[in-house]
Amino acid sequence: MESSSRIPPSHSHVPQFESLEASFGEIKEEQKKLGQQLEKLSLDMKTGFDDIKQLFAAHDARFNLLDKDVRLLKHQVNNSIHRASEVIQATVDDLKSSAQDVVNATELSLDVDRKLRPLVMKWTYWFSTTWTNWLRKFEVDHPPPP
Fold first, then answer.
1. Domains of the chain: total
2. DSSP letter, residue 4
3. Which superkingdom, per the lineage (predicted)?
4. Where are the alpha helices (DSSP H) in the chain?
């Protein structure tokens, strides 16, 4: 007698197993493709880093030259400023000297010729106010003419 409690053997495992084998095969193929892509990406990154190193080396040489040029230019600008300061100081000194020369000439003329005194006094007033204002404009300290 056959027992009804027994389950007859079924073939339902076979298609499921074939499906799993196919899935594993697809996964292996996908892993293989991903591995190849990863290797390619790694190689591209290495090549990119090598290119960047070459660029840095080339630019480093150029930037060092540029740095030297900038330092040289800065030195030249500082020299130009120093020379300009000397020229400005010499001009200020000449202006002071000229003012003193005018004062001395006016005093000498007044002492020599008393007839010029009224004319010179008008001129001296005009000159002293104009000259003093001009000296103030350029911030030159000098005593006003007499």
1. 1
2. T
3. Eukaryota
4. 13-112, 117-137
